[in-house]
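Let us practice reading a record.
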Amino acid sequence: PAANIYFSYSLNSTGAPARGDRDNRKSPEASKAQDKKGKKKKQVKKRESAKDTSSHHSRHTQTRITCDQSTQTEMEFLQTQATQTPPLQCTHTQPTESKSTQTLRSKPTIKQIYEGQTSRDQSAEDQPSSAAQRRDPNQLTVLTWNIDGLDGEDIKERIPSLLGYLGKYRADVVLLQELIPPYLKILQDIMKDYEFLEGSDSGYFTAILLKRSRVELLESNIVKYPTTEMMRNLLMATANFSGHQLCFMTSHLESMKTSSQERLNQLRRVWKRMKEAADSQTVIFGGDTNLRDWEVKKLGGVPDGILDVWEMLGAPEDSKYTWDTVTNNNKEIPFPARLRFDRVYLRTAREGAQLRPDSMTLVGLDKLKCGRFTSDHWGILCTFSFQSLNEQ
């Protein structure tokens, strides 16, 4: 069953986990010993982040991560909710039932949260679907987000929160990284208004979600990275939007400082594919690049014809750092790190109307009741508009 999550992956030559984004994995014994009801921020077990931290890793050839029983139970509960829609009002329970059971039954389902029938428990945000309702229908919206599916902690809060954000913004195109099969099943059961394309069907992978009422899929493709040691690839989808043909791309580039050369090899492949797209196509790439600014400079900067959307918008400080341990405490590391790991690149069509970015906003900034966030990454929500040749 999907709730029995496990991941097998090999380690790279430096001894870093092939999944690359976490160094320290919790054992099932340690997880079982933790009282689920007593979880607080300070009780969350140390998860040494491998994003930009220590290179002192133990050598192994293969590691299996298994969810503890409480995580499996929470995932099964959420999967059940995904296919049910009980009424919003509290369900009366028998006196013999526990208080926790009554609480679970009284809460809205994750489907209702996605549909915007009730407020999420995040006071700083509007109703889940209000942002989509206010949007200019001529604008294209793209959301890219590493959702950290490999983190099995607090999923009973983090998955509903994720669906709340996805339901609130209803982006035309959603680009996800670190998706895992149980997450995928829940999203597919609830997000019937989207077409799903996955970069794989096992382990952890990327996905492109296309809003059926707004975007028409023409074709899709998966480009392999021949020398990856972390199961990474490039997922592509060609689609029509409002009479324009676009190519959407997403990837989770090789993680870890020590994998810099492989990461840059993958980035070159992404840029090459963007440049090779048909002249009539607009190309948008969004994903977790794991890039440091010095690495882009090492390649001579972003190539001609490809634009960094964040830079196009004037490099706004409030949307710069997408992996920010100063604010985000999901990964407890011994020093602060603020990095622009997640990026959006644009290659405009060489003929016809030109797509231009209007805005970039970070998503997922609200802290949950558990004291953590939806993901260790912030998502990036971008809006774009087409300009005719006369408007340029």
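A brief commentary: The mean pLDDT is 80.
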